[in-house]
């Protein structure tokens, strides 16, 4: 399925592979994020039940210059876990960047395949499928999602990212302006030059100037350079989805949203402490609550979601399993413990500050989470420090209830002990 706009998109990503990446930077950093962080995949997609020893076959569909594929392949390699990451994209220019990044890291667990999401080559079935920043550029997002679900193995899951409208305030206005002064029929290099000239004279009243959360149009290293500017403001096809629209798309594809990342951002209650308002939110379903939070916060420029097949059981991590091993996604326990202020952890999401309440024993528990000790072993260690067993059990449950929704306290994939 293709059209004239699709041809323009293909030309864009050949001329300006996205996102802008320099393979030499692999020696300095690993680009990490959601979806497809290995700890998230283990916890949210497989409910921390899929053994780490079982090979993971993952497809990164619309892999671009390689962020998702490199992250997942490197995390598998660091953990000594078996598996294969298949990078799929139709851009030869993006492939060259991604391959150079993989070579810089010495990764041998990535396979590169050129092809389209809408006309998948023969690449087999996958335990996990990543589609980040692609569906909103397709001529038919539903056809794309259905195509990807067709290569999902039983019990597998997906991680997707699509644009969201409220946090992109100003973007679509400027896209309208640039279509008039830099028509899509002109070559990408000429359009970039014209867009830069417009940006130098952008009126103070332009909404994009008032939106601090959108930076892709800024020069490197603050923003995305020319590829980022083109993708944000000159892209020939760019649609966005509210939570209800995304839910409808997913349902029409025979899938369901199992999680929106991060869950706390889609909870309206931290934004509405008034008891009368909370009485009303309590009667809402997941999608309605998430839609309310999205509209109230106004700062969500993307939605990240993990999906499962609608007919399959939703994955749930078992926090009652004493042999489960908790892990912290980002930072270590001591650092998180130091961040506790007045019984809460302050966390900021795109300018929105949320105080996450934590229990009295939070610091003692956090400092003992090392990715090796089980829940039972951590509880024993805290008890040996002088805490009563009942208090330890209560506070471990409360800490999980506080930090799992911020996507920071998860359970790891089971390992042989």
Index terms:
Arc Repressor Mutant, subunit A; 417 residues; methyltransferase activity; Rossmann fold; 11 strands; SAM-dependent methyltransferase; 3 domains; globular; alpha/beta; two-stranded antiparallel sheet
Please, what is the average pLDDT? 96
| CATH architecture group name of the largest domain | 3-Layer(aba) Sandwich
The top-level CATH class of the largest domain is: Alpha Beta
How many angstroms does the end-to-end distance come to? 50 Å
Which topology of the largest domain does CATH recognise? Rossmann fold
* Whole-number count of domains: 3
- What does the radius of gyration come to? 22 Å
Instruction: Give the full name of the CATH homologous superfamily of the largest domain.
Output: Vaccinia Virus protein VP39
Report the sheet with the most strands, covering strand number, pairing sense and barrel closure.
7 strands, mixed
Strand proportion, as a percent range, falls in 15-25%
Structural class category: alpha/beta
Could you give the count of β-strands? 11
Instruction: Give the strand order of the largest sheet, numbering strands 1, 2, ... along the chain.
Output: 3-2-1-4-5-7-6
Number of helices: 15
Q: What share of the residues lie within helices?
A: 25-40%
Poorly predicted segments: none
Shape: globular
Helix-strand sequence: HHEHEHEEHEHHHHEHHEEHEEHHHE
């Amino acid at each position: 399925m293709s059209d004239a706009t699709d041809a323009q998109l293909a030309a864009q990503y050949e001329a300006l592979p996205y996102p802008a990446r320099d393979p030499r930077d692999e020696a300095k950093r690993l680009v990490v994020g959601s979806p497809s962080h290995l700890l998230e995949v283990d916890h949210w997609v497989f409910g921390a039940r899929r053994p780490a020893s079982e090979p993971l076959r993952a497809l990164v569909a619309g892999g671009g210059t390689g962020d998702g594929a490199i992250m997942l392949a490197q995390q598998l390699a660091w953990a000594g876990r078996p598996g294969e990451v298949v990078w799929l994209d139709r851009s030869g220019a993006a492939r060259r960047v991604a391959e150079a990044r993989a070579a810089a890291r010495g990764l041998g667990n990535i396979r590169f395949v050129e092809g389209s999401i809408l006309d998948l080559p023969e690449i087999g079935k996958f335990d996990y499928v990543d589609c980040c920043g692609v569906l909103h550029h397709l001529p038919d997002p539903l056809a794309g999602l259905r195509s990807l679900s067709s290569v999902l193995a039983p019990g597998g899951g997906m991680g997707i990212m699509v644009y969201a409208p409220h946090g992109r305030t100003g973007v679509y206005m400027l896209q309208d302006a640039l279509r008039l002064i830099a028509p899509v029929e002109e070559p990408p290099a000429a359009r970039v030059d014209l867009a830069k000239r417009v940006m130098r004279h952008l009126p103070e009243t332009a909404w994009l100037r008032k939106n601090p959360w959108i930076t892709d149009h800024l020069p490197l290293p603050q923003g995305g350079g020319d590829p980022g500017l083109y993708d944000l403001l000159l892209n020939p096809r760019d649609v966005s989805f509210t939570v209800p629209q995304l839910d409808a798309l997913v349902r029409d594809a025979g899938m369901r949203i199992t999680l929106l990342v991060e869950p706390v951002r889609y909870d309206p209650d931290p934004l509405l402490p008034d008891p009368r308002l909370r009485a009303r939110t309590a009667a809402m379903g997941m999608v309605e609550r998430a839609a309310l939070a999205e509209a109230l916060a106004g700062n969500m420029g993307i939605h990240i979601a993990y999906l499962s097949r609608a007919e399959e059981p939703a994955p749930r991590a078992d926090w009652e399993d004493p042999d489960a091993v908790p892990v912290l996604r980002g930072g270590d326990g001591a650092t998180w413990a130091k961040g506790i202020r007045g019984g809460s952890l302050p966390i900021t999401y795109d300018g929105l500050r949320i105080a996450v309440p934590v229990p009295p024993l939070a610091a003692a528990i956090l400092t003992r989470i090392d990715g090796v000790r089980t829940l039972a072993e951590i509880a024993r260690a805290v008890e040996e420090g002088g805490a009563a067993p009942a208090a330890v059990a209560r506070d471990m449950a409360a800490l999980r209830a506080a930090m799992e929704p911020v996507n920071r306290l998860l359970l790891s994939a089971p390992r042989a002990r």
